[in-house]
Write a structure and sequence with these properties.
seven-stranded mixed beta sheet, binds MU-OXO-diiron, single chain, about 400 residues, alpha/beta
């Protein structure tokens, strides 16, 4: 059965949600599912903005046919070529062979890599600032390279002040009946997933996100229609401010994040003592995670949120405990920077994890690293309490 949402007098959401998929991009856990948004504009011309992932193609086609109600499809605008949005394009072309496909030069290069249908005869190539008139509406295009792929662009309807923002302003999480962010408790129930989505998927490209935000700031935007998650029509500034922070690697919260690995519980015991000391010193906002238990995507998002971080782990195979090493390399790969950190290490012989963790941390920009690494030799001893106090003092300064 079709399942669509009427957003304006002439515009409909025709996307769908997937609650079965375990891993988005086959890497990020999505326990709350994900939505693939697609929109239809019914004007003198009919316009589809992006398609959906293959997994929800049949639902999408049913939605599209219902909204078109027998009309032909004149245009499909491809804001983003990643298959979570364009995998159903071939199906659209098959059903509406006269459709014109709007994209930029890079879009069409990628399209020919993914598909074998005739792209050239359907292609309408646009550049920065170009417009497409659909009758009562004029759509303008702006390039936002690397948010998330090089070909990414956004579409702006100046008449109704709607920005079709591609991956930007998206979030993990299936849509469960409500299409608008103001209909759900976004801060309580969605923000964590929005942060995890943005920081993991495009966290590396802060500069490019900043460039996109600068372009957006020149527009009068009343509604943001992203390709994942709810549509924004209220409180846009609040969400844009989150993007400002994430894309400039500015912490959202004054909070201590303790990330540890522990094989037999001794490193965990040491960080528990440290956490207690921080609590005693008045720290109210402490988050602790066992890196062996929690997927790195959650830890990376938490690192983007907090301003102070403790990394603690045992030495393993003369190196950093593997789960911790993976996390540190993930942080580095995402251009993580601007944090105050302390390092703790453990080992029974040839302890070297701390030095190696610090090498990775030192290669990130603007990291303020506490000089003294606390070394636990198998288990924490009474005479190390002073060293732990010093770490707590450093973090509380
Ligand atoms: Fe949602 Fe970059 O695709």
């Amino acid at each position: 059965m079709y399942c669509v949402k009427k957003i304006t007098e002439y515009m409909y959401w025709v996307g769908a949600s997937d609650r079965r998929l375990e891993l988005f991009e086959n890497i990020y856990p999505i326990p709350k599912g994900v939505s693939y948004n697609s929109y239809v504009i019914l004007d003198e011309k009919t316009v589809l903005l992006d398609t959906v992932d293959r997994s929800v193609c049949s639902q999408f086609i049913e939605n599209l046919e219902h909204v078109l109600d027998g009309r032909k499809l004149d245009y499909v605008i491809i804001n983003h070529m990643e298959p979570d949005h364009c995998a159903s394009l071939a199906e659209v072309v098959l059903r509406y062979p006269e459709v014109k496909i709007v994209g930029n030069a890079k879009t069409f290069t990628m399209m020919k890599q993914f598909f074998t249908f005739d792209v050239d005869s359907r292609a309408v190539a646009v550049k920065e600032g170009d417009t497409l008139s659909t009758g009562k509406h004029t759509l303008a295009f702006a390039m936002i390279p690397m948010v998330h792929w090089p070909e990414c662009m956004v579409t702006y309807d100046a008449g109704d002040k709607i920005l079709y923002s591609a991956d930007a302003f998206g979030t993990f999480g299936a849509l469960n009946g409500n299409i608008y962010a103001d209909e759900v408790n976004f801060e309580q129930e969605w923000l964590e997933e929005a942060r995890r989505y943005l920081t993991n998927i495009v966290g590396k490209y802060g500069t490019q996100i900043q460039a996109a935000l600068k372009k957006a700031s020149a527009l009068d935007i009343q509604m943001i229609c992203p390709l994942h998650g709810p549509v924004w029509r209220e409180n846009l500034g609040w969400f844009i401010d989150k993007y400002q922070k994430w894309s400039t690697y500015t912490p959202e919260d004054h909070a201590v994040l303790i990330l540890y690995a522990s094989i037999y519980g001794n490193t965990e015991s040491a960080v528990n003592v440290l956490a207690g000391k921080l609590g005693d010193a008045g720290e109210k906002n402490i988050a602790m995670y066992d890196v062996s238990k929690t997927d790195p995507s959650y830890l990376l998002a938490e690192a983007f949120r907090c301003d102070r971080i403790v990394f603690a782990c045992p030495t393993y195979n003369a190196g950093i405990f593997p789960k911790m090493e993976t996390l540190l390399l993930e942080l580095k790969a995402h251009n993580f920077q601007n944090r105050k950190v302390a390092v703790m290490e453990n080992g029974t012989w040839a302890i070297s994890a701390g030095k190696q963790m610090k090498e990775i941390l030192s290669s990130m920009k603007n990291m303020e690293i506490y000089e003294e690494t606390l070394t636990v030799k198998s288990s924490l001893k009474d005479d190390q309490m002073e060293a732990l106090d010093k770490i707590a003092d450093y973090l509380m300064k």
